[in-house]
Amino acid sequence: MAGLHEFELQVDRLRKKIEELKQMGKHDPAVIEEIERKFQKKIEEFYRNLSAWDRVQIARHPNRPHAVDYIRAVFEDFVELHGDRHCGDGKAIVAGFAKFEGESVCVIGQEKGRETKEKIERNFGMPLPEDYRKALRVMKLAEKFRKPIITLVDTPGAFPGIEAEEHGQSEAIARNLLEMSKLKVPVVSVVIGEGGSGGALAISVANRLLMFENSIYSVISPEGCAAILWQSQDKVKEAAEALKLTAEELKKLGIVDEIIPEPLEGAHRDWETTFENFRNYVKKHLDDLKKLSPEELVENRYQKFRKIGAF
């Protein structure tokens, strides 16, 4: 993430310099205004021409809002449920029920954690089979009580460790894909950061898939792709371009239904605007889906995924 952070540091240094010039009061206000105008134009130009690798870095930005931040800011009266009723309680997925715009909904989010201790507890956002089984248990409860489901996708991928395999990682993901495809309630999934591989897909078999402007959604990370195809991490930028993992590319391919705009310099710069955009876009799609019958919702989801990959 060095490139992006270097750019951000340069921007912050210029901002501070402009503030210093203002405070000194020795310069013509018109000159400072012209400097600010050119400065803003330069920032806009940079963010209009982001590469796929730039988007990857923004999607992974440490200050980007996480699932728990959306739950606290956008939802009300959240009640978290624990345990998969099978072997444990994963911490990388948060699941429960809450109020969204006055309506009871099921909300499920992948959480990476912030401080080191929390990151370890959350397994760096890489779910275990227990996480996926818990998520499915809560989704089935939502279906039983006819509550819409909103999922927040943000994971580098499902945890690939031996313990996860011993607990049936592939089966847990496959089961979620199957069961989500048959849910008779509206399902809206939002990629808020990283959408990595089957680990992301396991909670995003939805009627509507939305992506934030600077989020990514891919079968593999650029680093993993570079390691397999070129055996070199020097090729991560080429891999990011080849994977077509940005919201814009995925919208063209018909995988994503709508792109949620972000503040100019990314979601991490303005959480309030980001939360407001999330609220408006999710509500719009939920309102549309609520017009469909349970049978139509299942058919709608089926047709959506049948079309993916057809040219």
Plain-language structure description:
This protein is an alpha/beta fold. The chain has 2 domains: 2-49; 62-307, 2-enoyl-CoA Hydratase, Chain A, domain 1 (Alpha-Beta Complex), CATH 3.90.226. The protein is built from 14 helices and 8 strands. The protein has helices at residues 2-24, 29-48, 52-59, 67-74, 116-121, 129-144, 162-166, 169-181, 197-201, 222-229, 236-243, 247-252, 271-289, 294-307, and strands spanning 76-80, 93-100, 103-110, 149-155, 187-196, 208-212, 216-218, 258-260. Strands 1, 2, 3, 4, 5, 6, 7 and 8 form an 8-stranded mixed beta sheet that branches. Helix 1 packs antiparallel against helix 2 (29-48), helix 6 (129-144) runs parallel beside helix 8 and helix 10 (222-229) crosses helix 11 (236-243). The protein starts with a helix and ends with a helix.
Features:
311 residues, alpha/beta, 2-enoyl-CoA Hydratase, Chain A, domain 1, 2 domains, 14 helices, 16% strand, globular
User: Do you know the CATH architecture of the largest domain?
Assistant: Alpha-Beta Complex
User: Please, how many helices?
Assistant: 14
Name the helix and strand elements from N-terminus to C-terminus, one letter apiece.
HHHHEEEHHEHHEHEEHHHEHH
Estimate the mean pLDDT confidence.
Answer: 91
Shape: globular
The CATH class label of the largest domain is: Alpha Beta
